[in-house]
Every structure is written in C-alpha cells, then in structure tokens.
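#struct-queue
[09:14] JT: dropping the first one here, sequence first, then the structure tokens:
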Amino acid sequence: MKAIWKNKIIAESTSTITVEGNHYFPPDSVNFKYLQASTSHSSCPWKGEASYFDVVINGFSNTDAAWYYPDPKKEALKIKGYLAFWKGIKIEK
C-alpha cells in the first residue's frame, strides 16, 4: 500500500494493518521528511488518544492529515506508533 499526496509517496508498505477501514503504516515505512508534528489530539473510546502530523510538501500543508496512537489502549496495541492518513491523502496499491 502507498499513501500519496501532491505526487509524493509519504508511506509505502506491504504490511499495513487495517482498522475501521484505515490502513495503518509501520513507522519504518513512512517518509518523515514530509511530516511536521501537530499539537492536535483526539480521543477514541477503544483505541485511546491520537496524536497528529501535518503533511507538508512543496510549501503546501495538509493540517492533521496523519495520525497515530503513541500509547494506545490494550485493544489497539497492534497499531502502536503506526500512522494512518486522511484529508485527501490517497491510499492505493
């Protein structure tokens, strides 16, 4: 699977984990040069607190377009540190 925005591959992996229809990419498959830490957080009742990254490419910023669970609840431990994408980030094979 690939996560693509502005014709750049942000992440690419053959071992994503799908949860609730979202592909979570292992951290070592993510090109962090396109990510900037965000101060945003959200909460999921069964996964825990999510943290976000802005995706920044060629001067364009996609705010909070990537998220991950740094310290998930027990039920979601398999996605600890894995990143998922939305807000126009294309996920394709």
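[09:21] JT: and here's the second one, same format:
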Amino acid sequence: MTKRGAQSGFTLVEIAIVLVIIGLLLGGILKGQELIVSARVRNIADQNSGVQAAYYGFIDRYRQVPGDWPATNAAQAIPGVTTGGNASGRLDENEGNPWTEALALWEHLSKAGFIQGNYVGGSAAPSAAETDKAPRNAFQGFLMLFESDDYADAGTRPVRLNLTLGRGIPVNVLRELDVKIDDGLPLSGVLRHALTTGATFSTNDIGHSTAACVDDSADPDIWDIKANEQTCNAIYVY
C-alpha cells in the first residue's frame, strides 16, 4: 500500500482563526477612527465654551466689550494692550474694517488672562504663517467672534454675535458636533453652516465654508457626510 500524500492548504480552523484576527483588526481600526473624531469634536466644543466664558467673564470684570474697548482706555486696566475699538458697545466694523475689533478681542482676552496665548491685534486678515493674531481650531482654521449674519439659515438672518469655528473642519466632525450640542441640522439651532460666499471675513476664506458640506436636496438640509468634504466651517450663534 502506498501512503496518501500529505494534505496542503489551511484547515477550516486555521481559516476561522485568521478571519477572527482580521475582524478584530478592522474593529480596532474603526474604533480608533471613531475615538479620533470624538476627540476632535470635544476639542472644538471645549474651545467654543472657553471663548464664550472668556467673553462674558471679561464683560463682567471690566464692564466693557473686549475688542470694542478703545485701546487707550483698555491699556489703563490691562497692561500691554495696544489695539481696541470704537466703544459702540458691540463687536462691529471700525471705520469700515471688521478686522480691527475682531482681532483686538483676542488681544484683550489674552492680556487680561482669560484665554491662553499672547495676541497682538491688527487691522488686516491674519495669514497662515501668523500665530499671534487669533486662536485656531485643531485643523488650523482661525476663530473669529463678531456681530454678523454670516451663518446659513432657511429664512432671514438677523445680525447676531457669533463665533466662526474656523475653516478646515471635516464635515463628519461638524455633523457629530451638531448632534452633540444642538439639533444636528446645518441651517437651524445655535450651530450653523458658514456662508460659502460673501462672509465678513472672506479674506483668506477665514469665514467661508464649501457648498459640498451641506446636502440641500434633503428637507430639511442635512450635513452631507457622503461628500466627505474636509474644508467645512461652521458658526456658533450666541
């Protein structure tokens, strides 16, 4: 009798083990991605809460609007301040320039100790290379706090104090943030899609988002996760 040749290939048990390992690896990767998105969402939410607390804390302490307070008067209370606004009682354009008060805001808040950093103010849009003009989000987009109607809405847009969260945020992060802190919709609630054109801070696209971030074929409009847009921007309305 001749011996039967040794069997080659994998047994069912070996194949099952390999499939289990692959499944665990894929599950770990997906879970890791989910944790990264959640961490970014928490970062943006915490940053927004910090700015809001700093803004109202400044008003409570000095009885002045940060950024709007004239530089000469502000410097008497806050050493090192060199920029300021027109004392209109709100963050608005100073002689037709929105950057003056918007950037002075960060100088006032930082030099008064309400936020981290050492911002110097200015009268022109900050460039990507400038690190001393305004805070940035986790994706390097500039934050801007101002009175404007630069947020999306299904109807009229009254001018309101709002925080531009910064360009460069992936749409899935904004959608999760919206679900976490608001109603999950880009055209309603306190978290809105930023304008795609005509924003106050249009220079360097600081105040703009991209149209692909929102699916307007739905009713109501929804964040367009399928488009996977990476350069979105949103507005938090105070």
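[09:30] RK: nice, looked through the second one.
[09:31] RK: The longest strand covers residues 144-148.
[09:31] JT: good to know. The mean pLDDT is 91.
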